[in-house]
Structure formats: structure tokens, C-alpha cells
Amino acid sequence: MKLDMKDFWDNSQYAEQHYISEPPTDEMITKIEIDLGYKLPKSYILFMQHQNGGIPKNTCFPTTEPTCWAENHIAISGIFGIGYEKSCSLGGEFGSEFWVEMWDYPNIGIAIADCPSAGHDMIFLDYRECGPTGEPCVVHVDQEDDFKITWLADDFESFIVGLVHDDVFSNHEEEKTATFHMVNTAAFSTELMNLLSKQSDIRDLETKLRKLCKGIVEEKGYFALHSDRKSLLLYDLQFWLYSSYYDEITAERFLDTYPKFIAMPSEEEVVSSGGYAPDFVRDWLKQRMEEGAIVEVGYYIQFTEREKNRLIEKFNEM
């Protein structure tokens, strides 16, 4: 592969935690291929033997037609490694089978890369023409457009070599600036503003909420909630606001109401991530309950008094 592997990856603690596994053994490769039902491309295997999954420095791939991400390119968040341990690996919690079985993506091959939309578009190895043992092409699949499939490259190697830095696309900084303006000046949704108006424990909370949202944009270049530290804090805040105002909160009730806050409010021109991946929110809630921060009282859930006070103190110190 004509690529400088030393300069390809943008390694970080987040990448280490969610993407990067130990180099795959022959046994691991065989097991993954049997489990997924497809033979992995040789170029993909060789690539993963250098580093098994991760986040590349170049995250964009040019296209000749518009996609849900942009008029002339798609973007990826990370590339899945061969393994089962890391959540973003071929056999991991958010691996290939997860997107087909839980998100109804078409069963055309193997999901190898996720995108910044948190699940609303994905990159697949497409085996429809070559069969399960052939050389697959690489495609973009858009869940929001009835799973529209857009061809990207003839093979995995061509896809990897063709990745470019987001600076190549001149509107990136303009989009980031527009997103900053949105989270800094746009109104919050009616539901969220109502909850903000009902609390007095945190001083100037609206300003601090905007500061947190701007921090997310600064780190990612866009506004979306995943499993990073700032996103988890924003999940905490939204749950605290909701459970502080309403009684008898069940997990199902909160998860059903959650999109109305920031993810997918009904109003136009409000602070919004424009969509969300439900499993990130469910995983956050599951984790917080396993940690004992959110507890069940009868049929209902709430923060412990200690965790509530910790959250209030954290925001008051911002």
C-alpha cells in the first residue's frame, strides 16, 4: 500500500479506548471472517497488521455527488479494527453486525468505518457483485435517505489512499463557524428552556450550557453527542433538569422525551445536533445506573443526592 503509515493515524486516548486493538492473529482473522460470513480483503488485513483500527488524520473522501454530509465528500470518525474487544471493531459492541441487525442497514457486506452522524451514515465493504470471497468495493450508506448507497472506491486500498484532510474542503471552517454561532446565539428548544427556567441551583446555567456545547464543537468541529467526556456531561445535565422537574421518571419515559431537548427539537433555528444515535444515550444511562449514580426508587429512576450535588457543584464552578 502506497501510504506512510507513520503519519496516517491520529492516535488519542479516545481512539485507544474505542478503536485500537492488538494486531490480529491468524486465528482472530479466521474467526471474524466466519462470524461475518465474508472474506476480508488482503489490503485490509495488511493495513490492520500495522495498526488494528483507529482514527485517521485524513477523515474525508471526495465524491462526485452530494451526500448527507456535504456536496462533494463524506467524512469518517474512525476505522474498525479486526477483533471483538473494542466497541468500534468489526466484532465489537458497535461493530458490523450491530448496524445491520439493530439499525436495519442493508446486508451488503461489512461495516468498516463510522461517520460523524453517530450512526446515521456508515462506510461498508460491498460484496454484492464480487460475492462473499471476492474483492469488495467501498460504499457510503445513508440511513436518512432510505439507505441510499453511494460508490466510493473500487477496493479498500483505493479508499484508504484516497482519504484527504478536511482542510481540503474550504467550507469546513465556515460550517464550524456557523455551528459555533448556532450554539452561542440560537434559542434552546421549548422543552429545554422550560426546564432551565424551573431551576435555580446552578448560577447562569444557560450560559454554562452554551459553553459546554461550544466545547463539543471545538473538539469535534461539529455538534453531536457521542461517548466523549463533554457529551456524557451534557447527558447528565439533561437528565438532571428533566428529573428535577418531573416526578415518576422511568428509563423509557426519559429516552422517549430526550430527542426534544437538543437532539431533534421540533422548532426551526434552535440549538440542535440535528439527530442522535439512541444507543449512545441508552449506553450512557446503563453506565450511570451500573455506577450507582442513577438509582431505581420503586419503578422510577433518579440521581442519587450525592450525584446531584456533584453535578450542581461542577456547573457552578464552570
Can you characterise this structure?
- With 318 residues, this protein is α+β, with helices and mostly antiparallel strands.
- The protein contains twelve helices and nine strands.
- It has two domains: 5-168, 3-Layer(aba) Sandwich (SMI1/KNR4-like), CATH 3.40.1580.10; 171-316, no CATH class.
- A hairpin with a 6-residue loop joins strand 4 and strand 5 (121-126).
- It has helices at 13-18, 26-36, 42-50, 96-101, 156-162, 171-185, 190-197, 205-220, 229-245, 251-257, 278-290, 305-316, and strands at 60-62, 73-75, 78-79, 109-114, 121-126, 137-142, 148-153, 294-297, 300-303.
- Helix 6 packs antiparallel against helix 8 (205-220).
- The protein has a five-stranded antiparallel beta sheet.
- The protein is globular, with a radius of gyration of 21 Å.
Question: What keywords describe this structure?
Answer:
about 325 residues, alpha+beta, SMI1/KNR4-like, 2 domains, two-stranded antiparallel ribbon, 9 strands, about 40% helix, globular, Knr4/Smi1-like_dom, Knr4/Smi1-like domain-containing protein, Knr4/Smi1-like_sf
Could you state the order of secondary-structure elements as H and E?
Answer: HHHEEEHEEEEHHHHHHHEEH
Roughly what percent helix? 25-40%
Beta-strand percentage?
A: 5-15%
Beta strands, count: 9
Distance between the termini: 48 Å
Q: What is the arithmetic mean of pLDDT?
A: 91
CATH topology of the largest domain: SMI1/KNR4-like
Assigned CATH class of the largest domain = Alpha Beta
Any idea what the CATH superfamily of the largest domain is called? Answer: SMI1/KNR4-like
- Largest β sheet strand count, sense and barrel closure: 5 strands, antiparallel
Number of helices: 12
Strand neighbour order, sheet with most strands: 3-4-5-6-7
Radius of gyration: 21 Å
Detail the poorly predicted runs.
none
Could you say which overall geometry the principal axes of the C-alpha atoms support? globular
CATH architecture of the largest domain: 3-Layer(aba) Sandwich
Count of structural domains: 2
Specify the structural class: alpha+beta
Domain Knr4/Smi1-like: 23-162
Protein name: Knr4/Smi1-like domain-containing protein
